[in-house]
Automatic annotation (TrEMBL):
Name assigned to this protein: 17S U2 SnRNP complex component HTATSF1
Lineage of the organism: Eukaryota, Metazoa, Ecdysozoa, Nematoda, Chromadorea
PROSITE patterns, per database record: RRM
Basic and acidic residues bias spans: 408-425
Entry coiled-coil feature ranges: 134-172
PANTHER family the UniProt entry points to: HIV TAT-SPECIFIC FACTOR 1 (PTHR15608:SF0), SPLICING FACTOR U2AF-ASSOCIATED PROTEIN 2 (PTHR15608)
Organism: Caenorhabditis latens
GO molecular-function terms, A-Z: RNA binding
Amino acid sequence: MSDFVPETEENEEEPMNVDLEPKIAQKAGKEPVVIDQSFSRRFINNKWYGKYGEEGELLEHIKEDWIPVAEDEQEFLSQLWFEQEEQERNAHKHYDWDEEKKEWVPKANKTEEVNEDFIAEYQANYGVQYDDIYKKMDEELQEKAAKALKEEEEKKEKKRKKKQKLHTEEAKNEGWVDFGDKVHAVYVSNLPLDITDEEFQEFMSKCGVIQPDIRTNKPKCKLYRNEEGDLKGDGRCCYIKKESIDLACNILDGSLLKNKEVKVEEAHFELKGDFDPSKKRRKLTAAQKKRYMEQQNKLFEWTPDKPRNYRPKSDCTVIVKNLFTLEMMSKNAALMLDLKEEMTQSCQKYGTVKKVVVYDNHPDGVVSVTFPTTEESDMAVKYLNGRVVDGRKLTAELWDGKTKYKIQETEEDEERRRKEFEKFIEGGGNPDDRNEEEEEEEEEEDNDDNDEEEE
C-alpha cells in the first residue's frame, strides 16, 4: 500500500458500496439525497464527508446514511476539505494510480525541463532563496545610513553657516553693544591723573562689591591709559549686583576725589575695529561657572563675629629654634630621626603631641611641635623658651601662621648628604663616632712620634 493512500484507522468505519449502490438519505422535512457516480468523499476529523462536484453541499455519513451538514459547520469543514484536496494533489503530482496494484506508483522516468516554473515550484515547496532577501536588506540599511549621514552633514553645515553669519553681523555692527543684565558696570570720568588702582578700587567699593575676574580673580576695576601708559582720566568698574549701578550713580556722581568732581554713569560698550574670532575667549565649563558662582555667593554670606578670646589655629604650633646646627646635621645622618623622637618624648609632658617636624636645612635649627589645644602649646612655650641644650640656648614661640621654614636643598647639599649617609651605612655607626676614633688614632700617632723624637 502506498503512503499516499489514506489508511483506515481503528475507529474508522468505511462505508461499503457507497459508489456502487447509491442510497437515498432522508431527514425529517428535507428532500432525499441521491448518490451517483459524481459523488466524492473524504475522511476528515475521524468522519466521512462527501459532496457532488466542486460546488456541492457537504454531506456527513452517519449510520450508513448521508446527512447534510449543519450550516454553521459548512464553512469550516469546506476549508478542511480544500486543504486536504490540495495536499493530495501535490503529493500525487509525480505518481500514477495503478489499477492492478491498487496503489500509487512513481511516474515513468523522464527528464523534466528545468525552467522558471520548475525553479519557482521547487522554491515554493522546499525552500526560499535568501540571497535576494539579504541583498535587499543590505540595500535598505545602506540607504538608511546614507540618509542619516546626509542629515548630519546638513545640520553641521547649517550650524556653521549660522555661526559665520553671526560673526559677520557682529563684525559689521559698529556702534553700541547692549549686554543686557550680563554686565553691571559704571563708567567714571574726570578722575585725577595721579590716582592709583588701589585708590580707585577703594573709591568704587563704597557702593557695592566689585566683581572679580573669573580667570584671574582680580577685581574688574580698570583705569584707562594711553599708548604711552599715562592715565587718561577715566575708568570702568564692574559690580556683582545690578543695584550697585544706581547706587554709584546717585552717591558717587558729583563727589570730590582729590579735589576733582568725578562723573559716574552707567557703562555702555562700543565695538571698535574688525571682529577677530581668534581673540575670543574660550567658553567656561559648567564646573568653572559653578565654582565662580559659589565664590561670589560667599562674599555675601553672613558670618558671626569671633569671640574676644578667639585664637587662631596656628597658636597650637610651637616653633623651637637653635636646637641643632647644620654642621651637626651633616655629620650625623640619623640626627633628624633622633631629634624628632626626643622632641616627641620631651613635649609629651606638656600635652598630646600631634606632629613634630624637623627642618634639617634651616640654619636656625628649627623644629615645630603641634598640639591639639592652645593651652598645651602655651605651656610648651613657657618651659622650652630659654632652656639650654648642649650649650645652646633654645627659643620657643607660637607660630604666626605665615612664616615658612622649609628650605629647598641645593644639588651640592643633596650630594654631600648622600655621601655622608653612604659612609654611615658602610661604617655601621655614627659618623661622629668615626671622626672621634680617627682623631684618637691621630693623637696616638702624634704621641708616638713625639716619644721617638725625645728618645
